[in-house]
Design a protein that fits this description.
alpha/beta; transmembrane helix; NERD; about 30% strand; transmembrane; single chain; 4-stranded mixed β-sheet; about 35% helix; 6-stranded mixed β-sheet; membrane
Length: about 190
């Protein structure tokens, strides 16, 4: 004898639709928050620059290219900045191969980011000649450094302590760097995978 399929309760379809709508709203909310967070980080970094290039590829001097997260024209010259969003207490040093992050729920290690920063700085120096090029590893507010910060490491809220904010309304007072900046922009390409 063949069994008849059970009927779906009348409330199941509206409940499934309501659950899908709630999930969609939550997903959109999370995307909007992530977008606003990223925009706030970009604005904080751009605050110290007359002009900024973000996620670009520049020649590395060996026939290839290297990715630069942020390249800024500041009052002091050019600044190469890498943004790291690593939650937890960060323990690292200049000579260490790996740094450790200890968060509320996990402990993990990551490669010392200074080495990649130095490579990016060297590539930029190939385009700038005598113009000063500095580099900083910028960590978000989710990071803490209980044992001190290694060389060239800042939290993003400390960036203006190292590099003064610029008044873009006054114009570019770094005219001495204008030709060099134009050369850097000419060689920079948007990174298609960023």
């Amino acid at each position: 004898m063949q069994q008849l399929p059970e009927q779906i309760p009348f409330w199941a379809i509206p409940a499934a639709i309501a659950a899908a709508v709630v999930a969609l709203i939550v997903w959109i909310y999370v995307l909007i928050r992530a977008y606003r967070y990223r925009k706030a980080l970009d604005a904080a970094i751009a605050n110290v620059a007359y002009e900024m290039l973000k996620n670009v590829l520049i020649p590395n001097g060996n026939g290839g290219q290297i990715h630069v997260h942020y390249l800024l024209l500041t009052q002091r010259g050019l600044l190469v900045a890498d943004l790291l969003d690593r939650p937890g207490a960060i323990f690292g040093g200049d000579q260490m191969l790996e740094w450790t992050a200890i968060g509320k729920k996990q402990r993990y290690t990551f490669a010392n980011p200074q080495h990649a920063l130095y490579d990016r700085m060297a590539a930029v120096r190939l385009l700038t000649g005598e113009v000063p090029v500095e580099g900083r590893l910028l960590f978000t507010l989710k990071s803490e450094f209980p044992k001190g910060k290694p060389r060239n490491v800042l939290r993003i809220d400390d960036l203006t302590d190292d590099f003064p904010p610029v008044d873009k309304a006054r114009g570019n007072i770094t005219a001495a760097f204008g030709d060099v900046w134009a050369n850097v922009k000419r060689h920079a390409e948007a990174n298609p995978i960023s």
